[in-house]
């Protein structure tokens, strides 16, 4: 068989991914299949049927050690947290460098490092703090190459560390910690303080000096700042640490503790811990009657768990560090997960996030956990349990009792398990792109993407390219275009965040490790919405989650240096606009499109005029004036001037409106709303103005950039003035280019990936 026959000759993206990422030298597809399957005929058949794939490191590296290659078969590690001394801090950097050189990603927790201002017994007199060493670890990550790429790093800190607030804000400086993801280990105690608006104590005691640094904070204020950073920069992520520690097979084992998580947070691990990944493609288990084939699925779980254990033994001597080899030997973690969930639901005809979808995933997840535990037990009967296994501890684990009937518990716990950790859900960015299905538990990111061609018409034209599952459905049912799709086709941008979290929650119930997860939200998602999302995620028992708001400032961090350089060099001929430098204010000329709204406020009428760029539709000027009755003219004049200044400085309208909506409630506005019921939408004049501006903006965007069907999307050659001024059309303003092909990156499953060329930061 050839790779074209396996993936389909029209799947050029999948073929390119296989050639670039997983093929070794010029081996044939059959040679690759033999190498990756290790001679296991059952496993070979699963790969051929696209039902199961190992993680990227195994697909790339299995068997290459026999050819003299220095490789690891593990995607991720957690290094031992550095102790509070300079030797340990730099030893940690050395361990990171060695692990990266073998191709592994790393997590490191800095909670043991003294906070800023603590006394030290050297010439510095006081420490620069734990956060100051983050750039060291980030720098190491950026220095060590991995076959043309750089390593991945997660830096975490405990929520009761006195450097917490500095840690939260570190990435607001775009030049800081550029090569790492960051997360906070959030406890239930902290979240309860947030909900109850109570103070929370940050504390650290230095063993060397006996000094205790103590600080009392307002929990909600710090949580609000954390959510603001997530809204603006998509970091720091939140790791709900009590749930991580209490929902796994080792929760009752007092000898065991987690030291941190891997870069995408799906793998909490002990010091030196590592994990082998593999994922089952759920979309391949739909029967002709549109039901899920549980028998075939459980058989696949069994084969996959056995295969991962074989690879674990093969890879044991290949880990870069002694502490990693010892940890893997003692605890034997594997990470079997899933992908293609969204495709599965579409094939069956169930809407993602609906009660029916949650019920189905509950059954699939339970079957997966049950079979994985039973198979691990069967292997233990043959070869023995993992060395650190404790029967009583596992038997008392809530996760174990949730998934194993009382009839079998005693027997399984006495014989033991071959693995202390079995299940995880990783990003699967490259795997899912190669097979043309959705990644992890993510919904379909978009029904279609726009692709550009420059040669067919002598100028740029943009076309729709449908996601594979969408194209298949359109072709199968003879639909005109995606506008005729049934309502069970939902995307990451249109899905209600609670439905997205509900889906992750039900899967987390059956996953003993964690889930790499991104909740994509629209640009108009507010900071308050972000707070509600994280509170809901905690209440639903998630172990961790991040959000990515369309158009947030994180895009400035993600853009590659090469791309920035290319933009500067080619600006005169490029479609990429110049980015306004800090302090630059553009001038609004007379060639604007004006719109007007008359608002009813608590004091009377208020006239809101807004003027927009005719090419891009972006806000440039706002004028506010009162009627015969209606507010303070000087205040309105000042407000309109500040809105206009912000808009012409490059601040997007959603950020401006979010600030206006934070103005609170005006008593006169509330009284008139309650008595006459004729006020404009809002709670005060600034809030009403914000709603009006957004309404006019969206109305104009619809006029300038109307939707199209199969025809080329509106020609972008008209955007000349917008290019010059650094203003771009809605939804195009925050595109992050892929470092390999320049197409827009998407952020899903905790990772950046490209739908055009298959690039993935995490796989």
Structural class based on helices, strands and sheet pairing? alpha/beta
Which word captures the global form? globular
Major sheet, described briefly? 11 strands, mixed
Strand content: 15-25%
Cofactor: adenosylcob(III)alamin
InterPro entries: RdRp_reductase_class-2, RNR_lg_C, RNR_NrdJ/NrdZ, TSCPD_dom
Organism: Blautia hansenii DSM 20583
Catalytic activity: a 2'-deoxyribonucleoside 5'-diphosphate + [thioredoxin]-disulfide + H2O = a ribonucleoside 5'-diphosphate + [thioredoxin]-dithiol
List keywords for this structure.
alpha/beta; eleven-stranded mixed β-sheet; 24 strands
What would you note in describing this structure?
This protein is of the alpha/beta class. The chain is built from 29 helices and 24 strands. Helices cover 40% and strands 16% of the residues. α3 crosses α4, α6 (86-101) runs parallel beside α7 and α12 (294-315) crosses α15 (355-383). The longest helix is centred in the middle third of the chain and has 29 residues, at 355-383. It has a domain at 561-732.
């Amino acid at each position: 068989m050839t790779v074209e026959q396996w993936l389909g000759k029209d799947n050029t993206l999948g073929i390119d991914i296989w050639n670039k990422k997983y093929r070794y030298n010029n081996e044939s597809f059959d040679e690759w299949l033999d190498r990756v399957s290790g001679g296991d005929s059952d496993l070979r058949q699963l790969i051929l049927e696209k039902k199961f794939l190992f993680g990227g490191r195994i697909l790339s590296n299995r068997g290459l050690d026999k050819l003299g290659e220095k490789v690891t078969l593990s995607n991720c590690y957690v290094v031992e947290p550095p102790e509070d001394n300079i030797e340990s801090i730099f030893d940690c950097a050395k361990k990171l460098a060695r692990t990266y050189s073998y191709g592994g990603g790393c997590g490191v927790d800095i909670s043991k490092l003294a906070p800023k201002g603590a006394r030290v017994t050297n010439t510095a007199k006081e420490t620069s703090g734990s956060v100051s060493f983050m750039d060291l670890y980030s720098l190491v990550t950026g220095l060590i190459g991995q076959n043309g790429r750089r390593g991945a790093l997660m830096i975490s800190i405990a929520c009761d560390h006195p450097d917490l607030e500095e840690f939260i804000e570190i990435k607001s400086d775009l030049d800081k910690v550029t090569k790492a993801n960051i997360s906070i280990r959030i406890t239930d105690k902290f979240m309860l303080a947030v909900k109850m608006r109570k103070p929370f104590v940050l504390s650290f005691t230095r063993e060397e000096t006996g000094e205790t640094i103590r600080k009392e904070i307002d929990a909600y204020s710090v949580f609000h700042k954390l959510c603001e950073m997530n809204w603006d920069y998509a970091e720091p992520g939140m790791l709900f640490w009590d749930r991580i520690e209490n929902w796994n097979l080792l929760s009752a084992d007092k000898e065991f503790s987690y030291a941190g998580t891997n870069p995408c947070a799906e793998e909490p691990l002990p010091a030196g811990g590592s994990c082998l990944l593999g994922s089952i493609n759920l979309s391949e288990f739909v029967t002709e009657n549109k039901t899920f084939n549980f028998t075939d699925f459980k058989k696949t779980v069994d084969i996959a768990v056995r295969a991962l254990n074989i690879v674990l033994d093969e890879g044991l001597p290949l880990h870069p560090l002694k502490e990693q080899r010892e940890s893997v030997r003692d605890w034997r973690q594997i990470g079997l997960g899933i992908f293609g969930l969204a495709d599965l639901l579409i094939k069956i005809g169930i809407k993602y996030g609906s009660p029916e979808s949650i019920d189905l995933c509950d059954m699939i997840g339970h079957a997966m956990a049950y079979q994985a535990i039973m198979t691990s037990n069967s292997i233990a009967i043959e070869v023995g349990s993992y060395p650190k296994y404790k029967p009583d501890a596992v038997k008392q684990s809530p996760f174990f009792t949730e998934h194993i009937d009382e009839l079998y518990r005693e027997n399984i716990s006495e014989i033991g398990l071959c693995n202390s950790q079995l299940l995880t859900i990783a990003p699967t960015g490259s795997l899912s792109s190669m097979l043309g299905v959705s990644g992890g538990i993510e919904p379909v990111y978009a029904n279609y993407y726009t692709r550009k061609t420059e040669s067919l018409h002598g100028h740029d034209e943009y076309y729709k390219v449908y996601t594979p599952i969408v194209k298949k459905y359109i072709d199968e049912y003879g639909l005109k275009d995606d506008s005729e799709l049934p309502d069970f086709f939902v995307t990451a941008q249109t899905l209600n965040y609670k439905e997205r979290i509900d889906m992750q929650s039900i899967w987390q119930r059956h996953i003993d490790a964690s889930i790499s997860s991104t909740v994509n939200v629209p640009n108009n998602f507010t900071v308050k919405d972000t707070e509600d999302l994280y509170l809901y995620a905690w209440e639903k028992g998630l172990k961790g989650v991040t959000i990515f708001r369309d158009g947030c400032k994180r895009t400035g961090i993600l853009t590659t240096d090469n791309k920035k350089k290319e933009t500067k060099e080619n600006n005169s001929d490029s479609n990429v606009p110049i980015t306004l430098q800090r302090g630059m204010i553009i001038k609004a000329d007379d060639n604007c499109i004006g719109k007007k709204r008359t608002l009813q406020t608590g004091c009377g009428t208020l006239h809101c005029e807004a003027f927009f760029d005719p090419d891009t539709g972006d806000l440039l000027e706002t004028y506010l004036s009162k009627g015969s009755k209606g507010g303070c003219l000087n205040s309105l004049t000042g407000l309109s001037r500040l809105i206009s200044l912000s808009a012409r400085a490059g601040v997007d309208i959603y950020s401006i409106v979010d600030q206006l909506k934070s103005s609170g409630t005006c008593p006169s506005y509330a009284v008139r709303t309650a008595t006459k019921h004729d006020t404009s939408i809002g709670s005060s004049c600034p809030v009403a103005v914000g709603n009006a501006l957004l309404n006019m903006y969206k109305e104009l965007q619809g006029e300038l950039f109307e939707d199209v069907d199969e025809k080329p999307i509106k020609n972008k050659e008209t955007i000349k003035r917008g290019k010059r001024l650094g203003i771009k059309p809605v939804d195009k303003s925050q595109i992050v280019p892929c470092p390999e092909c320049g197409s827009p990156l998407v952020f899903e499953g905790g990772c950046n990936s490209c739908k055009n060329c298959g690039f993935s930061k995490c796989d």
